[in-house]
């Protein structure tokens, strides 16, 4: 392909870092840059980000990636056709319309400070924890944006005042970045997309609009909410002050939905992304499948204003790669994340040690906000290698639990020859991928490009401006031609025993939230 051909950029704003990747017309990356940003933990269970630091990290990534691609001879300045954006979902912020200043730090998706609000709502509302499931597909949980917004309204005076003065704008990180990219105080667009909106607890899955009855019951004013758009359409143009002024922003998806697109998941196919958490989604086509086994019903994607809405079943695991980070940063057992594979490989099994990483409770399929982390089965024989292996196993066990629920819910949606497509930074760990195949009893397939989130955002933007065609995006044979397949080697008998033991460990983590001394 000639270097002067067209390019698509993708902003990938994650939980711990921001990236900007530039792709050519064959979806090959030709320039990228990544910047980590600060994680704030004001109290136990609280997690915050500085929205201004996130914005600055994106600015740095964009400038550096463009510089790198240009230095390699790619004429990005003239031939960047569109920009797509993907982001950490549910993370919530409110900022001033008149000043552009965030009124509080962004409350991150895994933050658990809203547990008491959730308990209050469950008691007040007739449907309890499932009160809003019929409209939005989600249970009442600290995970979702609506309760984080309620906390801001109830606890931050600046937010309450801004709402009273009609000066408040609510958004998830995609909304914040698009507002800034399109001008901010000088005409910035206040929008979100259907995938991010579906994670707020406020959007009706059928109408794809904010649900009026939900807003009324929660006391959330509609005027602070952004406009909802599809995942693949020209939203607006990049404003002055960025390296690609005038380029259309043409795609926006929550990170897990972007990964589904990057993995070319068609109806009945599933993927698992391993990052800070782990997120397993199965494409259910145009059918809204209600879960009876602890999963979430969500929008997968809507690839154009007039396109059909595609839905998904999702299981979200709060702590996956974050457990490895905990071993590194808090415990000091390893000095880098990649060391855990070598350490865990020193033993053939965890020898009865089970680690449940319920640092802020457990998400799907358990939904236990009273759970806390436990490590059980420790003896004098236990070494740090056994604990390291138990940490890797806990990631795979949680994914297996979600997949088991997914198999029960999917029914005739699921494909007969089930393969788990995997992506995300933790999938470079071959031992983890083999453990995953062993515990699920299914093949695990890892594509050559594991950063499928940014690729999915680029696909959406490219589709909107005619660079990519939908047939190409969903050509899974092309995407998987250099993939690595991990096949299960563990016997069914051993698998069953380990799964039973894991189940006992999970139960031991329940009802521990009140242990404060």
UniProtKB/TrEMBL annotation:
Name of one Pfam family that matches: FGGY_C
Pathway where this protein functions: Polyol metabolism; glycerol degradation via glycerol kinase pathway; sn-glycerol 3-phosphate from glycerol: step 1/1
NCBIfam families: glycerol_kin (TIGR01311), PRK00047.1 (NF000756)
Residue stretches making up the Carbohydrate kinase FGGY C-terminal domain: 271-464
Top-level taxon in the UniProt lineage: Eukaryota
Ranges where the Carbohydrate kinase FGGY N-terminal domain occurs: 8-262
Membrane-crossing segments per the record: none
Family: Belongs to the FGGY kinase family.
Enzyme class: transferase
Nucleotide-binding listed as a keyword: yes
Single annotated GO MF: glycerol kinase activity
GO biological process, one term: triglyceride metabolic process
Reaction(s) catalysed by this chain's protein: glycerol + ATP = sn-glycerol 3-phosphate + ADP + H(+)
Alphabetical UniProt keywords: ATP-binding, Glycerol metabolism, Kinase, Nucleotide-binding, Transferase
Xref: PANTHER family: GLYCEROL KINASE, SUGAR KINASE
UniProt EC number: 2.7.1.30
GO cellular component, one term: mitochondrion
Protein name, UniProt field: glycerol kinase
């Amino acid at each position: 392909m000639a270097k002067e051909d067209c390019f698509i950029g993708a902003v990938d704003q994650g939980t711990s870092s921001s990236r900007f990747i530039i792709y050519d017309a064959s979806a090959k990356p030709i320039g990228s840059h990544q910047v980590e940003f600060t994680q704030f933990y004001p109290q136990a269970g609280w997690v915050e980000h500085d929205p201004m630091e996130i914005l600055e990290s994106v600015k740095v990534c964009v400038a550096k990636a463009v510089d790198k691609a240009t230095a390699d001879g790619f004429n990005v300045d003239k031939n960047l056709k569109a920009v797509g954006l993907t982001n950490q979902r549910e993370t919530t912020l409110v900022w001033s319309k008149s000043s552009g200043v965030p009124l509080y730090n962004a409350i991150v998706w895994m933050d658990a400070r809203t547990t008491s609000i959730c308990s209050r709502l469950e008691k007040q509302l007739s449907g309890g924890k499932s009160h809003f499931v019929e409209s939005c597909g989600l249970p009442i949980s600290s995970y979702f944006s609506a309760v984080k917004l309620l906390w801001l309204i109830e606890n931050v005076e600046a937010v309450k005042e801004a709402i009273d003065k009609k000066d408040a704008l609510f958004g998830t990180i995609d909304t914040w970045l698009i507002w800034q990219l399109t001008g901010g105080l000088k005409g910035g667009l206040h929008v979100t997309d259907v995938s991010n909106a579906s994670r707020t607890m406020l959007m009706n899955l059928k109408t794809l609009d904010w649900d009026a009855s939900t807003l009324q019951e929660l006391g959330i004013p509609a005027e602070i909410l952004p406009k909802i758009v599809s995942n693949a359409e020209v939203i607006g143009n990049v404003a002055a002050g960025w390296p690609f002024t005038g380029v259309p922003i043409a795609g926006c998806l929550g990170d897990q939905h972007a990964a589904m697109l990057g993995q070319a998941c068609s109806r009945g196919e599933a993927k698992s992304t391993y990052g800070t958490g782990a997120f397993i989604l199965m494409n259910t086509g145009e059918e809204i499948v209600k879960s009876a086994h602890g999963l979430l019903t969500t929008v997968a994607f809507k690839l154009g204003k007039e396109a059909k809405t595609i839905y998904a079943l999702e299981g979200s695991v709060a702590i996956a790669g974050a457990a490895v980070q905990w071993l590194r940063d808090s415990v000091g057992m390893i000095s880098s994340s990649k060391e855990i594979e070598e350490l865990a490989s020193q033993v053939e099994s965890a020898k009865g040690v089970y680690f449940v990483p319920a640092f802020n409770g457990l998400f799907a399929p358990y939904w236990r906000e009273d759970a806390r982390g436990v490590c059980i089965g420790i003896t004098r024989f236990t070494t740090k290698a056994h604990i390291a292996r138990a940490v890797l196993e806990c990631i795979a066990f949680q994914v297996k639990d979600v997949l088991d629920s997914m198999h029960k819910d999917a029914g005739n949606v699921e494909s007969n020859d089930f393969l788990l497509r995997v992506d995300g930074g933790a999938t470079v760990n071959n031992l983890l991928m083999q453990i995953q195949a062993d515990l699920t009893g299914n093949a695990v397939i890892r594509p050559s490009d594991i950063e499928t989130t940014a690729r999915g955002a680029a696909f959406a933007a490219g589709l909107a401006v005619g660079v990519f065609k939908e047939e190409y995006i969903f050509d899974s044979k092309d995407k998987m031609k250099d993939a690595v397949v991990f096949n299960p080697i563990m016997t069914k008998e051993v698998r069953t025993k380990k799964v039973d033991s894991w189940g006992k460990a999970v139960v031991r983590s329940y009802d521990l939230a009140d242990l404060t001394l």
